[in-house]
Design goal:
Distance between the termini: 17 Å
Order of helices and strands: EEHEE
Helix content: 10-25%
Largest sheet: 2 strands, antiparallel
Strand content: 15-25%
Strand order of the largest sheet: 1-2
């Protein structure tokens, strides 16, 4: 599972344009609420961390990596 959009709802992480009214145990029924600066920063860090965990250094003989624009990394989430 990926981290929520950094600008997603304070309570549930859903984007503002698709939010409507949602229910969560913490907030009950609620409309979109702007996240705090700390939430935005933590969500951005979580997304970056998840992205870097999906790649590994594997040398110049691998496929071209769109994340670093080189052939030095290979996605590992495609492997089983």
């Amino acid at each position: 599972m990926t981290a929520p959009n950094p600008m997603g709802c304070h309570w549930c992480g859903i984007d503002q344009r698709t939010h409507g009214r949602q229910w969560t145990p913490d907030a009950g029924w609620h409309t979109w609420t702007q996240p705090t600066q700390e939430q935005i920063k933590n969500r951005m860090r979580a997304r970056r961390s998840a992205r870097t965990e999906r790649i590994r250094h594997s040398g110049p003989d691998t496929k071209f990596c769109v994340l670093c624009l080189s052939g030095e990394h290979q996605r590992t989430d495609d492997q089983e």
